[in-house]
Predict the structure.
Amino acid sequence: MDKKFSVVIAGGGSTYTPEVICTLLSELDRFPIRSIKLYDIDEERQNKIASACKILCHEIDPSIEFIATTDPKIAYTDVDFCLAHIRVGGLKMREKDEKIALKHGCVGQETCGPGGIAFAMRSIQGVLDNLDYMEKYSPNAWMLNYSNPAAIVAQAVSKLRPDSRIINICDQPIGLESAMAASIGVADRKEMTVRYFGLNHFGWWTDIRGKDDNDITDKAREYVLQNGFIAPDKMGKDTDDSWYKTYYKAKDVMAVDPTTIPNTYLKYYLYPDYEVAHSNPDYTRANEVMDGREKMVFSICETITKNGTTKGFDLVTGNHATFIIDLAYALSHGTYERMILIVKNEGAISNFADDAMVEIPCLVSKDRYERLSIGEIPTFQKGLMEQQNACEKLVSEAWIEGSYHKLWQAFTMNRCVPSAKVAKDLLDEYIEANKGYWPQLK
Ligand code: NAD
Ligand code: G6P
Ligand code: MN
């Protein structure tokens, strides 16, 4: 009989937990499960999600053990995979990250620019804690981490826990590939074989092949250059307007280098003035998420719990969760699936720092992955990536050393911050706002 897996979800109270569980339960044929555990530091929040997920789990397969706990020992004992999606400080702190940046005339975003740096300074300890629990109680498990800001978290973890079994991932390339596939008439993004390189939320596609190795790069390039990533009838119906704008703006990002197809997140670095001008400093993406996704997920969970059944709900599965399960499947079954991961460069991009955490295609097999060689990258991308990598490295070093100066340098280095003066003003305000979350800086 096939091995049955035990999975812990770190950040059990996340808005993404129900989708991840739905997808796990819809994939039991290929990825059998014996236990699903939720772990969070906020018991009350997690219980709201867990009570509904437990009902769902029992409806699909009552033999699966379902546990929600705030005890790391219970959570992490006897697990094969930890799927980690924590948000240290919650959406309330995301709101501060975004609003403080905008107040100083800078991009206010969750992972990019000053907000991403502030978030990283909270997130690193949370991810390390969870990784340490996993290594203590289930040393052979893998952590598939998508807690943001994934780029800086990956950078810090690779330095502090170089031998840990953690893989950092992002669903953005996957989502954009689905949009691209739909735009150019490819039935499933898995029919495409892509070349892609960059840092997390900072990358480019250079080559796209369809079935029978057909080169469809130009077709995809032409579409994105004209339309961005919009494929009107194929995007999820719940996609918020702000995300449509982001998909559309990709065409302006691409205009700067029409030879490659950019990740949408590059808009924050290449058009920061436009982004600030089109942001509402009193109502940011954090507000949209709190009023939208968060309310919706919690209200569905509340109704399911009250009714004692999931009947009447179309519970969602999605790209995001499918990608995570594909990765767990590849690591446990040795499929050599080609997947875009955030990994140490170690020569894959030959003209880029060996120790940088880059986002590139890898072949994933049993308990390991192999990087695909990218070779030399062009001057435009190399220059941008070097600056961004230096910024992310400085954040990680500032966190490790408790260095005020390195963090000031990191803010100064960021393309979304115009001067060292603004960088210092931002830093001082973030220190105040993050008391109790950031390490002490000297
Ligand atoms: P959320 O605030 O709804 O949920 C996060 C949960 O983490 C909360 O319940 C919180 O209590 C919990 N938490 C905080 N610190 C913790 C700790 N130290 N240990 C365990 N649990 C902890 O957030 P969300 O909007 O659902 O997003 C969750 C995370 O997933 C964020 O970091 C988000 O950016 C990330 N995310 C990443 C990707 C990607 O592409 N990498 C995609 C989607 C979401
Ligand atoms: C994309 C990114 C994630 C990000 C997510 C949600 O999927 O890759 O890193 O967390 O979007 O963003 P939102 O603004 O909707 O919370
Ligand atoms: Mn991401």
User: Anything to note?
Assistant: The chain has a mean pLDDT of 96. The radius of gyration is 21 Å. The longest strand covers residues 357-365. The pocket of nicotinamide-adenine-dinucleotide (ligand 1) is lined by residues 10-11, 13-16, 39-42, 45-46, 85-88, 90-91, 110, 126, 129-130, 146-148, 150, 170-172, 320 (CB under 6 Å).
